[in-house]
Amino acid sequence: MLGVAGLPAVIQFCVMLFLPESPRWLFLKNRKDEAISVLSNIYTYERLEDEVNYLTAVSEQEMQKRKNIRYMDVFRSVEIRNAFFVGAGLQ
Q1: What dihedral do alpha carbons 25, 29, 34, 37 form, nearest 10°?
Q2: What is the residue extent of each domain of the chain?
């Protein structure tokens, strides 16, 4: 029974080893050459330029957001604060 349930997980794990990283993640980590090579496998040259420009703009916005976030901002939302305390209580 365990083998039947575990077989799809093993297959998925093996397939995931060959998947490329997310181009957005690569852009955020300043690995732009790798991101462009991943995108070039997906898009044509014309569309590739648009995607690179979009990812550049999004990564700049993301970096600006990260500079303005503090740890105490998490606790301002009631839902997130409650989820945090429930999770901490379950530990």
Answers
A1: 40
A2: 22-90
Evaluated on CA atoms 29, 31, 32, 35, the torsion sign reads negative
- Per residue in 41-65, pLDDT (tens digit) is 888 888 999 998 998 898 888 888 7
pLDDT tens profile 16-32 = 998 888 888 888 888 88
**Closest CA relative to residue 55, chosen from 29, 74, 73:** 29
Rounded CA-CA distance 37/33 in Å is: 6
- Listed in sequence order, the residues at least 6 apart from 24 whose beta carbon sits closer than 8 Å to its beta carbon are 35, 55, 58, 59
Q: Enter the tokens of residue 25.
A: 């993640």
